[in-house]
Amino acid sequence: MSADPATFRFVSTNRRVREDRRFVAGRGHFVADVALEGLLHVAILPSQHPAARIVSIDASAALAMPGVHYVLTGDELAAATDPLMNGLDTPKVQRHPLAVGQTRYAGEWVVAVVADTRALAEDATEKVRVVYEPLPFVMNAEAALKPDSPPVHPAHGSNVLLDRTFVWGEVEKHFAESPRHLSFRVTWGRNSTVPIETFGVAASWDPWRDMLDVWASIQMPKYPDQIARALRIPANCVRVHQDVDVGGSYGVKRGIKQSVLVAHLARRLGRPVRLIEDRLENMRGGDAHGPERIFDVEVAFNDAGIVKSMKIRALDNAGAYAGRAPFQLGKPIGAIVGPYRIESVQYRAQSVTSNKAVQEAVRGFGQSPTNYAIETAIDKVAAAVGLERIDVRRRNFIRKEEFPYLIPSGSTYDSGDYHTVVDKVFAHIDFAAMERERDRLRTSGMLAGIGIAACLEPSGGNSAFEPLLNEKNTTTTWMDSCRINIDGLGFVTVTIHNTSSGQGHETLVSTVIGEVLQIEPDLIRVVRPDSLACLPSNSPVGSRMAIMLGGAAFHAAQKLKAKLTWIAAHQFGAGKDKVIYASGGVTDPNSGRQLGWADIVNIAHRNFHLLPEGMEPGLEATHVMQVPTGTKLPEDGRVQMYPCHSFEFHVVLMAIDPALGKPEIRRYVIGHDCGTVINPHIVKGMTLGGVAHGLGAALLEEFVYDDEGHLITQSFMDYLLPSSHEVPEVEIVHHCTPSPYTVFGQKGSGESGYLGAPAAIASAVNDCVASLGISFNKLPIRISAIGDAIADAQQGKPQEQAK
Amino acid sequence: MKVDLRINGAKRSAELEPRKTLLDALRENFLLTGTHAGCEHGVCGACTVLLDGEPVRSCLMFAVQADGYEITTIEGVAPAPGELSVLQDAFCETHGLQCGYCTPGMILAAHALLQHTVTPSRDDIVDAISGNICRCTGYGQIIEAVEFAAARLRIANTPQPHHGARHRATGEHDAPAEGVMEADQADEAIVEAK
Q1: Which of A15, A24, A687, A700 to mutate to test the interface with B (most CBs of B within 10 A)?
Q2: Residue A23 near chain B (CB below 8 Å)
Q3: ipTM surpasses cut 0.95
């Protein structure tokens, strides 16, 4: 199909998002809304120590309380279940839902209490007596890296989960040839996307059917498989209900430990059991923190600001267990040079354990921190050579005619037109006027500055980082599926095979199928069967659904269109390719005969004698789609990561009152190119929401631990989320460079905005304070840090002048 | 203890513990699950309901404290099964949500604003929803939804509902307390959604 938007009937049009109706009426179906007869409730007793041996647990007082049914310890659970999966080949870093033998972070779950109500369960946790023997602990990644640091997992031998150096291209030669070098460090603070709905799961077990039913607030690939493995039961004994709405995820709703815990309790007690995390359980022990990363960057460039080579060392604090955290160092390899023609890169990826909560997948899977490091490098090169930051970017951008473009680490970028996006944004802004406004603000006594960032959003997610970082993993398949059924009355029902956390999948597939079959999308029903009735899916991760679910729906619809066409052609006695399909009917141009939708449906469902020989009756089509370009395992440390690469370009005008230190965003403009947009409302929402997440990461949000190893930002009083006051009005400038690898030319947009906003906002803050000779190299840049640094600089100034 | 409450215009009774929050009572005793628990410490606003037309955090008050107030939950906003209020429909028009979790609280906060004024400024809207955290949208399309709903209410030429509660918006923005919008009070024509 053509990617020319002018030819689309439904794709790219401003159609409403069909999911919205039930939510505005309060009729979402979230996990806490699932009513189960005889439901029991779980509350968690967490560890108060960052590291401690569990000497004894006395639950007798809790068990004696009325309404309390059970107290589960880590020892019992570990004996009954297998450890949770590790991504890397680190078998001695074992993780169980409840601590076994020792605790490894403050907030780690130690005991689960089951009672008639959540309130009773909470009461009973206070009666459980746990005796601990505190152990040495380590919080800081650089300290954890030292051989003499207290090992979080003694059996593993050290805190190092991953230490791998990649060299792509002639890095040393390029450094030697380059006349200019610079180096710097930036740090990405530990934050997360923190959905307003915590993680929740309910489970019931039927021992006569051998069936575990699970309802969960989940966004995770292979979730039923992981439950089955941990519980040591066949995978077809686990039935996950995918029609549960997820109240926000952005990557983090990976509640495998919660699910194994609750599933075990449901089997053990013969009653349905649920755990809905409260905010404390979620913040300190929900295992949903994001990357915490130190970047040491060296850049080789010339006087014209052309960057030839980069050396990046990324040291990531994974927290107490391995999980998938180290892979978040792997995914950015697919866009390690950003939108730039950097010829060679050395990348050292280090992941260490520490006594903090476990890091989980967060929107962008490590890309946003990496983009912050790359964009800081470009700003610093511009400063070093005395050029405008935008000019250095323009000089280094890959040019439109160079696509598809192979980057040193093995990924091919599909398409892009970065210069045009920048030009459109600058024209929209009137950049010269913005500079005048900045100067006016400066004259008025404010600190003012402009932030700029350009970056890529890899999309169409696969898991190529898994075999790249773990040779035992040979996964190259990363499919998604769609099934369409046209019933005997001609109505269309589509099945999709994953949960939704607000991405609008129903709107996506109905739009795509309506486009192909040329029928009204709003008449298409979309359902999510339970996991046992599902086709393979890898869930909405890695900005993949427009590409993968949209692609699978497209191909399934094409199969049905071909079948409808063939049935009609057979009636006409004409060749399949001699008739014309239009708006659900088929015409034979030679004879002038026509068959409408209802006629063809009737033949397919009721007139087997009229079907072409060998054709199956009915009108059903299925398509299982592999990720485009995913054909090879890694070779020599190089791999094709995600297939598609959206582009975003941010410009931020900021003002800081030097007396307050509060950064105020006066204008925020983002240029965005994600190829063909299937639903403009959805892409806009993703982009605006992504900018808000990025603002939080840049200025507000951080999981801070004190020197005693305790999380001190564990409520929304301390872990600050952007409200409508903090998030500025964002202007979006669109551009469309279709991807050659997808059915409509679409690319992903699920991480848009977030991948560049932290870099842009940090750039703006630093431009504001540059006149004071200071800069910030750690996110988040909180108001207090800005205020203090400005005060120090202003007090320091006279002294410097006096020298 | 037994508590009698007025919820969405109807008298409802339940036997519940004095320590039970209004949030938990609405969800568990009255099966009104459109009200959501978010932080349960009064910051995020997901549990927002209206008490005599004013937004409150149902996680921060006990159910027994709501005795004597008119409680409005999201289930009380739509005019009839399958229908939507002007504001709810506006959220659909601008896609003022994604996951839908904060949405009931957000709509009730905005609903309260539009009961006070149908000419809110952007700042009025930002203020009205600033106690409701949304992690999906970045608020842009929510603000557009409230603006859109206000515009439709202005040109709807129908009586403006008014609870007579305390006005928060500035006086000049106030709609008439009762009665019919005059034509000259309606601003620019709004193109009806497709």
Answers
A1: A24
A2: yes
A3: yes
